[in-house]
Every structure is written in structure tokens, then in C-alpha cells.
Task: inverse folding
């Protein structure tokens, strides 16, 4: 029996879809059978991030409405054997699916896959309620900004109310140099405020833009800092103990020198 | 120190304040539970008007304050908590 995990955030644009695509890719790379579910009905995006947009025939709403079988709607990734996508419908809206239907769907998926990752839409309405129905645990993506952390706090409250086990935090798009300058909240600041456990930190990385342009998740690229961070998070999801990356490692020589003398 | 006025510190302070309101507002029983508990404690010291009491979280300058307005009818003489 596989595990169902939702990737959520409250605020839009913080990297839920990129995170889902990369974690799924990294889990599949290590040999797991993985299904990614795009729960953002009406604003389908996970397919383009994965480069699978041209292969969609049926979607999540078709499955839920009994228009096709689940197996027919699943798209196999072209690079990784174990990776599958269940795309969102583009022409419907969030109300075409109920939490009960999502629960049945994830129940069916967990028979087949070791990891089922649900890419949640932004917001706290119907789409979010659908995305969290039937999940075993939650990953919250937040960037080091006031609005993002505020929305993450609200989501933590809603997940608690839904009696989902304590969520784990992914701090996304961290810029270590800005943190050192005192111009960005640090990971510690965010954890202190939200009071939840950290599962990973993804540094800001231009590679993400490039890989998303190409439809190839950064987790596939050796040498991408964000890709490495995602691979580490995937291993932690699978239960491995992985030390946190030293995000200062690639900062400039002068920065390191200054820190050595306690001036930064 | 320079950290005091850094934009990161400002972000943290603003976030803390906004979350005080958010957490209190979004938990349906928070304010009414707080009100009931406070009124019970205050009543041990003084006779208060239950109906006219008002509790609010207000932003004052750079912090949040709990403002309580409780009508006092009479102070109980020599009252100490716990020695009813």
C-alpha cells in the first residue's frame, strides 16, 4: 500500500508544481513507482513542467466521472520507468470533483504506486479541500516572504483541523547571500514562527527556469543546486536520514573570508 | 546592531503581528474561550458586569495588544486567588 502526500502552500507562485514534479522525478529515479496527480483543475500545469503536455488523452475529471478507466488516463513519463502523471482537466472547474471522489481515487492509486503526490491548487477553497482529502501527510512549500509564510500558517491550521498528521516544511527559493546580509528571513526564522518540522531547503537556482522551459525537472540534472536539494528531500520522504546541504558552499570567496572574520 | 533595522527583522516583526490576529480570528473559539477564562479569574477579585465586557486584539504601533474593557461593579474585600 503506497503513501499519499499532498504538496500545498496556500499562496500561489511559491513553487508547488515545480516541487511536486521534482520530488516525483527524484523518487522515481531511486526506483520507486510514483504517480503525480495534478489537482489544480482548470489551471493544468504539472504536465508542462514535466514535458508531458502532448500526451494527454484523458484527465482526472474523466476518471472521476467514469468516462474512462484510471489506467487509461495515466501518462507514463518518457524518461523514467516508474513515473506517472494523472493530469488535471483544463476545461472544467474545481467543483467538478468532490473530496469523497478524491478519496476514492487516491485509494485506488495507492494500490498501484508506492508514492502518490498530489499537487494542490493555491487557495483554501474547494480545490484545496479536494487535494487534501484522503492524504496521509502533507508537505508545505513556503518562500522566505511575509505573505508566503503567513499563508503557510493558515494552511497548517486547516490541515490540523482536518486531522492530517503534522505537515513538514520545504523552504523554497532561499537566497543565502540575502539571508547573510539580513535582507531575507532565514530558515530558522521561518521554522521559529511556523513551529513545524523542516524537510528541506531549496536554494534559488536559475537552472529551475531553464529546466522548466525545457520540460525536464532539475532533479534530473547533476550540478543543479535546486535539483540536489530536491533529490535530498525525496530521500528524506522515503525515510532516509540525509544531512542538510551547506548552502553557503558556492558563495563567493570574499563572502567566506568575511564570515571567517565575523563580519557578515 | 545592524540586524535590528534589517529588512529581515522588519519582515519577522510584521509577520508575528499579523499571525497574532490570523490565529485568533481563524480559530472559532479562541476569543470566546479567552474571554470566559479571563472573566472567571477577574471575578475572583471583583464583581464584574458580564454583559458589558469587551475583549479585542488591537495593533498598537509595532505590537499587538489585548485590550480588555470590563465593567467593575464592586471589589471584593481582601480576596486572594484560591482561598474561597
Result:
Amino acid at each position: 500500500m503506497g503513501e499519499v502526500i499532498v504538496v500545498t502552500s496556500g499562496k500561489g507562485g511559491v513553487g508547488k508544481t515545480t516541487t511536486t514534479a521534482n520530488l516525483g522525478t527524484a523518487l522515481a529515479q531511486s526506483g520507486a513507482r510514483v504517480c503525480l496527480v495534478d489537482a489544480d483543475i482548470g489551471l493544468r500545469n504539472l504536465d508542462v513542467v514535466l514535458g508531458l503536455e502532448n500526451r494527454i488523452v484523458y484527465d482526472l475529471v474523466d476518471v472521476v466521472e467514469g468516462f474512462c478507466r484510471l489506467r487509461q488516463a495515466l501518462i507514463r513519463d518518457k524518461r523514467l520507468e516508474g513515473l506517472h502523471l494523472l493530469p488535471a482537466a483544463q476545461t472544467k472547474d474545481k467543483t467538478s470533483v468532490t473530496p469523497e471522489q478524491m478519496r476514492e481515487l487516491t485509494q485506488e492509486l495507492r494500490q498501484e504506486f508506492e508514492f502518490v503526490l498530489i499537487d494542490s491548487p493555491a487557495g483554501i477553497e474547494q480545490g484545496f479541500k479536494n487535494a487534501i482529502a484522503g492524504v496521509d501527510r502533507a508537505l508545505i512549500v513556503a518562500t522566505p516572504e511575509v505573505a508566503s509564510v503567513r499563508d503557510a500558517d493558515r494552511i497548517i491550521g486547516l490541515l490540523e483541523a482536518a486531522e492530517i498528521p503534522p505537515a513538514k516544511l520545504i523552504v523554497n527559493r532561499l537566497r543565502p547571500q540575502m539571508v547573510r546580509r539580513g535582507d531575507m528571513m532565514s530558515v530558522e526564522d521561518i521554522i521559529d514562527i511556523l513551529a513545524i518540522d523542516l524537510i528541506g531547503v531549496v536554494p534559488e537556482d536559475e537552472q529551475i527556469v531553464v529546466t522548466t522551459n525545457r520540460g525536464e525537472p532539475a532533479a534530473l540534472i547533476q550540478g543543479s543546486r535546486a535539483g540536489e536539494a530536491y533529490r535530498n528531500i525525496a530521500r528524506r520522504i522515503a525515510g532516509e536520514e540525509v544531512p542538510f546541504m551547506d548552502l553557503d558552499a558556492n558563495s563567493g570567496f570574499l563572502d567566506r573570508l568575511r564570515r571567517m572574520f565575523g563580519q557578515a | 546592531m545592524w540586524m535590528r533595522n534589517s529588512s529581515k527583522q522588519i519582515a519577522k516583526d510584521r509577520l508575528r503581528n499579523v499571525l497574532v490576529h490570523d490565529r485568533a480570528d481563524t480559530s472559532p473559539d479562541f476569543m470566546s474561550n479567552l474571554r470566559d477564562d479571563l472573566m472567571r479569574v477577574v471575578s475572583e477579585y471583583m464583581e464584574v458586569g458580564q454583559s458589558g465586557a469587551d475583549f479585542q486584539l488591537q495593533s498598537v504601533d509595532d505590537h499587538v495588544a489585548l485590550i480588555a474593557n470590563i465593567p467593575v461593579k464592586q471589589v471584593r474585600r481582601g480576596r486572594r486567588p484560591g482561598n474561597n
Observations:
- Chain A has a mean pLDDT of 94.
